[in-house]
Amino acid sequence: MPEPVARPSTPMRVENLLDVVRPDRAALPTLGMDGALLAMTVRIRSGSRSPAGRPGAHGDDLPEQMTAGQRVRVWRTDDGSRFEPFAAWSTSWGGHWSPDGRRLAACVHRDGHPATLAVWDATDGAVRDFAVRVGSQYPFERPQWALGGTALLVETRRPRTDPTDTPRTPSVLRSQDDPDDARARTLLDASDLTLVGTDGDVRVLAEDWTVRSWQVSPDGRRVGGLRVTRVDTAGHELRFALVVIDLVSGARTTLAEEIAQQYGLGWSWSPDGSALAYLVTGRRRADELWVAAADGTGARRLTGGTSAQGPHGTDSGVSDYQAPRWLDAATVVRHQEGHGFVAVPVSGGDPVEVPTPVGEVEQWLVEPDGSGIVTDDHGALLSVRNTDGQVALDRIDLVRGRRDTVAVHPGSISASALHVGGGPSAGVFLMTSAEQPGELWLASGGGLRRLAALNPGLPRHHTVQRVRGDVRSRPGVGLLVPLGSPPADGWPLVISVYGGNARASELVERYEPDNGIVEPGLLTSRGWAVAFPDLPMTDRDPMRQFAPMVREVLDRLPDVLPVDRRRVAVVGNSYGSYTTLSLLVTMPETFCAAAVSAPLINPIASYGAMYPEGRTLDGLWESGQGRLGVPPWADPETWVVNSPYLFLDRVDAPVLIGVGGPGLPGEEAQAEQLFTGLRRLGRSAELRRYPGEGHAPTASWGPAAYADFATRLVDWVTGAAPLA
């Protein structure tokens, strides 16, 4: 048996994490200059700003807040060297190459100024800044080239009046407004769709539309998009219209209406521009694949989708960012995570399926700026998947219905569909591991080639173990184990929880898996193991679903890892804080400490809280994560027995509470309710406020705020007294 690797003598410090380069969650890597250059948006925490009292998540500086610390970086694919074309700006994001691959457009921002549009010319290095104000919903305002590279399509916004400047003007909301239409208007900040010519001409194509996804047609002369038209109040689901706008005449054509989707990203153009494929999805319903003629002459359903229950006990309707794509003008391909690929002939005929191996994560390689799929010389699409600690590059032949492995390499791919990109003939993807937050790899029919590491030379603080389970009876768990030998009493343990995440155990295959509250390396480098248990859920009565699963995980762990049961802590952010408090009140005498951020602990109070424009979280608690099924007045008992706040007298572990905000409505009030309740009970609790920092410490907080809270969290957990 090999000797354990010695733990470094110096634990990880928060400062060590501030300069770690992480892949952006929403901007795909993309190739330009005939594959010689790779552009990608990354995030560096030390570049984030952290001003106290900055406007909230729906304020006028939204893109500037959401993109703090973002950088567009460009790598040379021949030697892996990199540079920043927009270095003169404090942030940049959403790089998009022109059709000839010579110019790179991006959104840019300087502190104190609004975000604007800029173009970098790779031939001479010149950058041109266009005076158009981009926004309003990051990351959906990514610029796109149109009209043969002579214009750029971008979402723009107009300055708004700060209500604090006119205190005598009331904000009026009327309950008599049509609830569907009113929610659609306030669901997201609306913006203008604007065509910006490279000659400086600016033309607004649509005003005050809420659109999550625009895409220019293959010929560059039209643009399509799913526009939010209403919210279905019964099911708390968005309804979209599929609209095409002619970029020359400005004429608009509505191809389909009442399309149900979660994010409005599930659609694409055919290669010849004659049709658009789109999904109809929803909770507890089978997905449907449709195709609409681009001239508006009609739409028809191609398939009724897969079973209503997807992999890991989740609803198949949660398609997120997985749009249908086109293998050719006659074939639409659908990739459903956990199921595999299905090719559907547009003119009729039997679909061809190639399933994903059970329990493996797989992503196809796609063109990030279009609707095509990366294929080899024989027309087979290329995919990458995790298999037994390795990444496999596969050929997926959707004519013969077979899979062939081209190459394998140790590592893991990101589970995010947004970390795959490239160009027509080669794909780029992120290979991750517990030791490395991202290496860029190039994949083609000829195999795999490493391009560059985002963070060369990072120290290693833990090893990884996965304990697989049966989602229906024995949840799996991912473990980050400190280096070195365990103490005589076993490893102290932190359990990171988020109810409803049935695949949390897969997070450990990434560097510093994001749980929203703290980087695990800060704990493992101090001798604490960190566990990510799978927590699948069923509808109704959520609060008592977590304890049996966590108890079962704790009982199984001694078979694979020595654990000191007197020193087990639990942490969670957002709905993970609801999960944490639910465990504290249903599993007393189990945890030595707990930490939460952006707490959701009082569903009734959260249900009635509003964003400034009137939107609420009723959908989250009724049919979303909250799983309570009905409004509070329809079944008061269910709401009472599922409120951790009403059972705070059962909490026996010290609780650290962090809150930034504005995040979810009522977030700061929930933190105060939790703290004052525990204080009234004489329990050990500490509330730390960081005004204006946002919802998740690891995602949106600036370096100073995060460093303070993370340092306190580590001290809070590691300094907690063991249970008797």
UniProtKB/TrEMBL annotation:
<keyword id="KW-0031">Aminopeptidase</keyword>
<feature type="compositionally biased region" description="Basic and acidic residues">
    <location>
        <begin position="155"/>
        <end position="165"/>
    </location>
</feature>
<dbReference type="InterPro" id="IPR029058">
    <property type="entry name" value="AB_hydrolase_fold"/>
</dbReference>
<protein>
    <submittedName>
        <fullName>Dipeptidyl aminopeptidase/acylaminoacyl peptidase</fullName>
    </submittedName>
</protein>
<dbReference type="GO" id="GO:0004252">
    <property type="term" value="F:serine-type endopeptidase activity"/>
</dbReference>
<dbReference type="GO" id="GO:0006508">
    <property type="term" value="P:proteolysis"/>
</dbReference>
<feature type="domain" description="Peptidase S9 prolyl oligopeptidase catalytic">
    <location>
        <begin position="563"/>
        <end position="699"/>
    </location>
</feature>
<dbReference type="InterPro" id="IPR011659">
    <property type="entry name" value="WD40"/>
</dbReference>
<dbReference type="Pfam" id="PF07676">
    <property type="entry name" value="PD40"/>
</dbReference>
<keyword id="KW-0378">Hydrolase</keyword>
<dbReference type="Pfam" id="PF00326">
    <property type="entry name" value="Peptidase_S9"/>
</dbReference>
<keyword id="KW-0645">Protease</keyword>
<keyword id="KW-0720">Serine protease</keyword>
<feature type="region of interest" description="Disordered">
    <location>
        <begin position="155"/>
        <end position="180"/>
    </location>
</feature>
<dbReference type="InterPro" id="IPR011042">
    <property type="entry name" value="6-blade_b-propeller_TolB-like"/>
</dbReference>
<dbReference type="InterPro" id="IPR001375">
    <property type="entry name" value="Peptidase_S9_cat"/>
</dbReference>
<dbReference type="GO" id="GO:0004177">
    <property type="term" value="F:aminopeptidase activity"/>
</dbReference>
<feature type="region of interest" description="Disordered">
    <location>
        <begin position="300"/>
        <end position="319"/>
    </location>
</feature>
